Input
Amino acid sequence: MPKSAIIPVRVKPGASRTSVGGSHPGPHGLALIVAVQAPAVDGKATEAARRALAEALAVPAARIRLRTGAAARDKLFEIDEPPSDLDRRLARLRDGA
Output
């Protein structure tokens, strides 16, 4: 099992509600869409996206950190000790389930 996994994410700040689902063809490959209510100011949207991603994947938020994209909508998050079925969980979320 890999010690970490990289997940491309497209963050949509200022959404009416927080949601995780759908896909976007981003610069880092097929990205998971994470819509957050937080504004794109002072890293608030990035932190909200990190927490939403953790909840959607059912992993502790402390195991997820931003790898690249602090000031961009397209980000890479890294998960330490990813679950063995991470690919299945991501596919389900990308499909909008």
Remarks:
- The first strand starts at residue 4 and ends at 12.
